[in-house]
Structures
1.
Amino acid sequence: MAAVVDIRRSIFAQIVAWAILIAALITFGLWLLTNATIQRTNALALERAVDVDLAGMVDIYAAAARSSYPTASTIASRFSRAMPIRPTICLPMPRAAHWRGI
């Protein structure tokens, strides 16, 4: 049966208790730092995305206003020309012997 050790009398128990406390504090501090960094990065990315979207919309409306009264189709066509989506080309994997399991 295990005996309960009085932490005030055992040097080893005190060292273990301090080590656990310090490890927990360091882990919590690193979590706070990581959480703050992630939140700041997400906020900056969101601000940049909104800025780009607003700039694109302002440019589309300005271009549409110069030519004629903007309709939904002219705005959509100018928006698609201003921000085209480019497909990504996926290359096939090489057919080497080590890929076939030989």
Note: The longest helix spans residues 11-67.
2.
Amino acid sequence: MHPLQITLITANAVGFSLLLWKGRLDDRLAVLVMTLTQIGSFALTEVTWNGMRAGLLSMDLLCFLFLWGLAERGGRWWLVLAAGFQLIGLLGHFAPFLAQERLAWALVTLLWGVWTLVSITVFFGVWEVMADRRFAREGRDGARMDHGGGARAAASME
């Protein structure tokens, strides 16, 4: 296993654990989907069809569809970002067919890059979950509005 893979798996384990601990149902479902995608990707790496890695393509497609559905339903920005990065990785599977020569290493690099971005997004998700809890506890933005009574252009924050 490549050291980058080990690093990303470790980072995902930390981020996923935090999301499972602090997140809502949508966050936990996203963790489940991304974990199953990682396991399925390793299991289906060698499944090919006409020179295309059909196993990886199918896992990325399923992951994108589930993340997209969760993003539509959940109202979390990190899910929108993760679904977007997953779409980039999904479309990257078709890049070799658009070039005159096979771009196998370009695809591997793109997929690892997308995996890195999704891992970073998971930590953004942890921050978003914590911020959501804090804002729910302290009010919408953690501050009080000073509407005053005098004539002013706009309300000020205190």
Note: Residues 104-138 form the longest helix (35 residues).
3.
Amino acid sequence: MGYLVTVVTLFAVQALLSTMFTWLAIKVSYVTLTLQEIAIIAVTTTLCSFLPYIGLPLSLVLFIFLLMRYSGCSGFDAAAVAIFTKVFVLGGFILTKMAIT
């Protein structure tokens, strides 16, 4: 039971951080999205990132693809937003994991 609570907590924190930092990144870039689209991208990539071994690279590619699909932006803008978001989310995820365990 304790493991399930840890996984759910990490998922919720990572999805929240991903939504927050994506919103922040699109405010300073040429990408326009609604909060609902940001939440869909954040939850989808967060679920994908929990896969062992391939989760992080797969979630990054999926993040860029969904960002380009929903906003119609260029690949460079999508990659810049994705890298900015993933770096800060990874830092928050590591801090959360250290605090929980």
Note: The chain has one domain: 11-100.
4.
Amino acid sequence: MQMDRITDFYEKTGRLFQGGFLILRKDEVTGSGGRFLSLIHQRFEKVHVGDFVALIAPGTTWFTLQSDDVTFLVIGDVFDNDGDAVEDRLRALTKGDLIANLGNTDLGGRHAIVAITEGDLLVANDPFGSRSVHYCTGTRVAVASHAALLAHQFGMPRDKATTAFVNAPQYLDRIVCYLPGHRTVYRNIRRLPPNHVYSARFGGIARFWPHKPCEETTREQLFDRFDAALNALRTFVVARYTPVISITGGVDTRSVLTAFHNTGTPFTGVTWRDLNYTRQEAEVVSTIAEKTGCAHLYISQTRTDGDLLDICAAYNAGDIFRAAPRGVLMDKVRAEIANRPDAKEVLPPAFLIGYGGEIVRGFYRKGKRGPEHGFNVQTMIDLYGVASRKHGTDKAYSAYAAAAFREFYQAARFDPRSLKGFDPNDVFYWEHRMAMWATPTMETIDLAMPCLVGLNSRKLYETAIGLPVEQRMSKEIILSYIRSRSPELGAIQVI
């Protein structure tokens, strides 16, 4: 019954799988799996590349490029964080080992890079992993942006063990809900972590970053990487979208809006009153809005469980959330912008979410979590957390998480040799929590408008990880960057 409601919603609005894709072998392109799959095959654009067909969601940017014997298909928003031409960066990948060369790239935005070579299909995503990529385990060669696309295409049922896990009291009691390892709600579908590439030839994933040993860096080098990433983001966005940036009492989104404020680039500010908003923030938010002179929206949403938009937003994100408040709130922002008198004269809105800052600040390095204490599967389980304050632990629940992380540890290559001196706590936070929680939250927002990570740069992250630990372990490192670029915004209190 609920799937019928989701199908009706998609048929009426088209607001699922925005920016999405499904890549199949030519002989498997069939849309005969029911009404929902038929809608996908009717609406998605079909692009033939080598022995494969890519079905790409309406309105999604894409292009192909031939370089030597490699055919590239780039799906989504992409730009180079150092300001070079994306095409030149792609051509450079073919000079030598393509997979190894991916570790040298720093292409921002939200995209998937597909490379078709003789005998292989390779797929990687942006540094943050904000363009989700899913693949089938076993011998089946198929890749998609959303796990549901693969599940519908091949009639894959939901995994009973995962269903039990997400319905367990320990999971429902979590403040931040996301799955362990790189699992999905479907048994034979996995999510691709950032810094990895899916290879059809090998039937799995391979790590391509780090490509060199971790080097000690300085605050000045980090600030230069901030400048490069934020300038590249701003330049790209203003040519295509009307930027929407969250205004809060924190530092991550403030660093993003600093780049727009300093250059006099207009943006719309938005503050969610129903999500992690406190009275203490009110004065800070008001001051930032006044200093920047932006058009500022306060958004509140009285949501009832079972609301169709909420259900569909959670479905779009892989059905790992009990609810999708970000999607519901940003849909109100979309409606507010659409009702402006000049709505038809301006570019469509895109939300620049302040993710990436916690990678810079070393969220998992707090306390005694340094690499000197060792890092293994149990460390992953401990950082994820399987115990509930209300419900304690459960044997089956804990066993599921342990199995998921054992698989992830091996597949994602978390051994010290592969990480080349980079702190595994930082890499784990980046490649697991951000990919498995933050990216799905963006997929709830996609129903309202495109969503881009504000700080999406591999070089920014690796420069931050190279800083002395004492310089990273607080919001001060990002606040000091803001002060150096915009003293008036840097002087405002941080909550």
Note: The first strand starts at residue 21 and ends at 25.
